[in-house]
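User: quick one
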Amino acid sequence: MTTPAWPALPAVDELVVDEPERHSFRVHRAALSSQELFELELERVFGHCWLYVGHESELPDPGSFVRRRVGTRPVMFVRGQDGRPRVFFNVCPHRGATICRQDRGRTKSFQCFYHAWTFNTEGEFQGGPDMDGYGGEWDRSAVNLAAPARTASYRGFWFLSFDPEIEPLDEYLGPAREYLDLVVDQSESGIEVLPGSQRYTIHANWKLLMENSIDGYHAAPVHVTYFKYAGQVARKAGGTQAAGPSNRYGFGRSLGGGHAAMDVRQSYGRPVARWSPLFGEEAREPIERRRERLRELHGPTKAYRISDVTTNLLVYPNLIINNGVALTIRKVDPVAPDRLESTAWAAAPADESPEMRERRLDSFLTFYGPGGFATPDDVEALESCQEGYTCMEPGYSDVSRGMDRSPTYLDEGGLRGFWRTWQAQMADSEPRNMEEGTARVDWEAARRDWEGEAP
Amino acid sequence: MSGSAASEPSLDPALQRRVEDFLYHEAELLDAWRLDDWLALLTADVAYEIPSTDADTGDLSRELGFVHDDRERVEARVDRLKSRHAHREFPWSRTRRLIANVRVRPDDAGQLGVEANFAIWRFRSDRSDTFVGRYEYRLVEDGDDGLLIAFKRAWLDLERLHPHGTVSILL
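Assistant: Done. Structure below.
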């Protein structure tokens, strides 16, 4: 499929047409298909954000490492012998060869296979053959492993930035922190990423997957086969839940900073912590115990949010955390204007029983993942749209749902917050209209409503 | 469950022929999208698994994979593929399976451990995807001179689903 050279690219600050007074928001499709804009985006967006690297649990021991691409750069994520996780560019300072040539493992040091230069797990150059061959003035400290300008962790989620001036991670995450807390606080022992990841290419612009992940509007038509299956299984196990997303209490909203979230009250079971016949009778007691414990630790309202509400979180620009029938972390990488690479992991409470873990993984695979009953149809939708962008007419995508009402989960306020942030970075300007698509939520009232208490 | 398998593959030509023919028959059904006929080849307690391209041990009770179906779910998978709403496979892709390197190891419980190599081409939307890997089967007698699949695992040799994006067909 070829992407057209748009004959007249809009100006960079006119790609997003944002008209709240006309209840209209449109995005020019060159933003999703132009090579020129893609290259600009790599610098203006990926060069100035915090980008997800990995989770601390992927590095269980001193010397543990994984390697992957982050924002197109190859990196190594390593726990030093000193116990500290670090990120290095997986590129030898000598001549540029790839140093770390295994996807994961544990090591006491790294040796480049080209000239046998060695580095310790803190990234320091240790030497190579015949170091007498280097002159006395030669600066050895210049050949330590290069690292991104900034790295930081929020509660075990590690990020990097190529921008030395970027605001601290906590500030950048802002309101998204609350959603990360809901994930980590599921368990007193914290969460861990499970072995096995799902890596898949989609022939679509990376931003289409970001949109899709916080778009509730597509759930009913696209995922009809999933809801049918889930309903059948629930009824067979003795539940009476209707198959289908519940709009009775759910909304998608912009959180500010380009971040977005979808919260939908979940009538199905959730491994943490809402029992359903699907999990089997023997899982009822441990799940209900966990549910009670959450109330003790966090109070009824936060416990309600953890136990009963499915959340999909978008951390700008390219991280998704789905916290529904299972917990998944998904990193989305730009490869070309019409290609993205997605990596998805399952995560779970570290202290979860083997039986519950098995059920959770089972639950995961029904919906999430490229072999499940839902994700393949999302992939089809994104690729279909990308193919649509080979046609220059009509030129704009419409992202106008919900501009004159309080956000429901069928509305697109979250997408608009993402696009406004993107537009501002691309045009090097201040984001505008960032209040639109946000919503204040009275979680206490939501809980009372759900639990049938008097308001 | 299963008995302990012979360590060496069987050299019995009749058995080899029988198992190969069964695998060719299975492939023929799948390539023709005769999915109900394919379901009839599975036992009631069948497990159908596709570990991740990033698999550690392939134990899907502990690690994330792509597919981990029991009978009920594989029936739902077939149901889904026959509906017009499995958008990734509507219309159906064209597929062609090649099966090779078939080795048969009978166990002492009368079941057949089978390994084979596979290459599956999938053609759709102006693209072709190739799934390459190794099958592990456990086949049992159906009591009528035929065979049934009690277990089927497809190990993928791909490093990632590139350019495939999904595993939307039965492998």
